Structure formats: C-alpha cells, structure tokens
UniProtKB/TrEMBL annotation:
<dbReference type="InterPro" id="IPR011206">
    <property type="entry name" value="Citrate_lyase_beta/mcl1/mcl2"/>
</dbReference>
<dbReference type="InterPro" id="IPR005000">
    <property type="entry name" value="Aldolase/citrate-lyase_domain"/>
</dbReference>
<dbReference type="Pfam" id="PF03328">
    <property type="entry name" value="HpcH_HpaI"/>
</dbReference>
<keyword id="KW-0456">Lyase</keyword>
<keyword id="KW-0479">Metal-binding</keyword>
<feature type="domain" description="HpcH/HpaI aldolase/citrate lyase">
    <location>
        <begin position="28"/>
        <end position="229"/>
    </location>
</feature>
<dbReference type="InterPro" id="IPR040442">
    <property type="entry name" value="Pyrv_kinase-like_dom_sf"/>
</dbReference>
<protein>
    <submittedName>
        <fullName>CoA ester lyase</fullName>
    </submittedName>
</protein>
<dbReference type="InterPro" id="IPR015813">
    <property type="entry name" value="Pyrv/PenolPyrv_kinase-like_dom"/>
</dbReference>
<dbReference type="GO" id="GO:0016829">
    <property type="term" value="F:lyase activity"/>
</dbReference>
<feature type="region of interest" description="Disordered">
    <location>
        <begin position="1"/>
        <end position="21"/>
    </location>
</feature>
<keyword id="KW-0460">Magnesium</keyword>
Length: 292
C-alpha cells in the first residue's frame, strides 16, 4: 500500500461532497457534449462530471458549425461555465472559434483538436487573450512525437489523448498493450513539461464494466483524467481515478507516525513515502472526500 499513490477501487468508495467543485488541474471526468445539441448542455452541467466540454469539432457536422458555435456562446453568456473543444488550427473553423469565444468570462478553457506543434498551442492561447487555458489534444503520431514540446508551449494546461483519431492515424489496435506506449509517453511528456497528469481518451463501449477496466488502464499508465462520452460514465471514472479509503488512511497514519518521530528521516524510503502521502491527502481534499 505504501508505494501506491492511487489504486483501482476494491472497496466501498469514499464519500465525496455532493456538488464539490474539483479544480481543473485535478479533474478526472471530462464530459464531451455535442455542441449541436444545446438541449443536453444543462443536463451535462448538472451531472457528476468534473469538467464539461462542449464539442464544436468532430461532434458537429461541418455544415452546422456556425449554428452550434452560436448555441455554445449563448449558453456561456447566460453565466454557465464550461470548456469548448475547438477546431484544429489548420481547419476552416479555428479562426472563427477563436474570434467568437475570446473575451467570454465564463469560458474556463479550450481543448485544441489535433494539436501537432507547440506554436499551435501558443497562438491559440495568445489569440484568446493570453489568459484562457488550453488543453492540446494529441491525436496523431506527429503530435505524440512532439508531446513534450507541446506540453511546454506557452498556454498549455494539460495534455489529452485523442485515442480514436490516433488509432486511425497509426493503424494501432485499441488494446491495452497497443496503447500502452502512447499513454506512457503522454504521462512522461506531461511530467517533463511540468503539467498535471494527462487526460486519457474515451471508452466507446456502452458497458460500464468495460469502462471501469479501461479507466484502470488510464490510472495504471499515470494518467489522471479521462474523456467521457455519456453522463453515466462520469461516476465510474471519478470512482476509479481517485484515492481509496485505504490510500487515505495509510497516508494519514504515515504522516502521523513520521511527525511523532520528530519529522526526522529514518531511512531512504521516508521521503518518497512522505511525498506520496501528501499527494494522496491533497487529492482527497481536491475531490472533497471524507473518510471517517
């Protein structure tokens, strides 16, 4: 137990504060909602998702981009807070996305589709006014090869994995083994760039059992968030990518024992374990978890 920062659930889940706002740097479930379906926006906002992303890219027919963007802007201007997945820099829609979203106070950030170079992130960030957070979505072999540079780009907030388009680009299977390198690479790139853990791609299978298994793959590879396609997926993702009761109790006990010994290092394992314990308790606080 002492060597594990997060573990897959195998016991009753800790109680989380209902309606607790999770900071985006720790957000686990990132719910994608088609921007062309405004009737779903409020339901997504009221879901268990840590973050709501209104998807103005692949989820919208090219002929309906303007209408969908207008619906997104209207919803945000009503005071609703959320993220928007915007079209990639090379598309015909990116500039309009940027120009019309700039200055909207309730826009929490953008997910930049098909990011393949650091300058795409930086230009997006500056064009949005230099304060809006950008999550580059890595969806190709080229993007993965420059993941560290993209993560270090001015404006980059967290990296995300567009696993479906990545498989289309590379011809790889969706299996755990085939995707292991890409997931691990994004985690290493994120840490090297000084970013929070990356956000994994979505599970397309309707089975919540399959979702749980794949969310454990996410966790196994050091990723700390996961894209979701349906509201019911968010609770499972939040449960898996989260410190468990045993994690939190171990962290409390270790810190109490360490402090009882005067905070003096006793052997070479103390400092790594202290770091893990503090991380676990920090996440528990970020997620509003209460353990009796």
């Amino acid at each position: 137990m002492e060597g594990t920062a997060l573990t897959a659930p195998n016991s009753p889940h800790p109680k989380s504060a209902l309606g607790h706002k999770v900071p985006a740097e720790h957000a686990r479930s990132w719910l994608l909602v088609p921007a062309s379906k405004p009737e779903l926006f409020d339901r997504a906002r009221d879901s268990r998702a840590d973050v709501v992303i209104l998807d103005a890219e692949d989820a919208v027919d090219p002929r309906k981009k303007d209408e969908a963007r207008a619906d997104v802007i209207a919803w945000l201007q009503q005071g609703n807070r959320g993220w928007v997945r915007i079209n990639d820099v090379t598309s015909d829609f990116w500039e309009d996305d940027i120009e019309q979203l700039r200055g909207i106070e309730s826009l929490e950030g953008v997910v930049l589709a098909k990011a393949e170079a650091p300058e795409q992130v930086t230009e997006t960030f500056h064009r949005l006014g230099g304060t809006t957070r950008v999550v580059p979505l890595i969806e190709s072999a080229l993007g993965l090869e420059d993941a560290t540079g993209i993560g270090r780009a001015v404006g980059a907030f967290r990296l995300a994995f567009g696993s479906g388009d990545f498989r289309r680009d590379t011809g790889m299977w969706a299996s755990r083994e085939a995707m292991a390198y890409a997931r691990s690479r994004l985690t290493v790139a994120s840490i090297a760039a000084g970013l929070p853990g990356p956000i994994d791609g979505p599970t397309t299978d309707d089975s919540l059992r399959v979702l749980r298994e794949q969310a454990e793959w996410t966790l196994e590879h050091g990723m700390t968030g996961k894209l979701c396609l349906r509201r019911e997926q968010t609770a499972v993702v939040n449960e898996v990518i989260c410190p468990q009761n045993s994690d939190i109790l171990w962290a409390r006990d270790f810190i109490e024992d360490f402090e009882a010994d005067g905070g003096v290092v006793r052997d070479g394992s103390d400092m790594p374990r202290l770091g893990r314990a503090k991380k676990i308790l920090g996440l528990a606080e970020a997620f509003g978890i209460e353990v009796g």
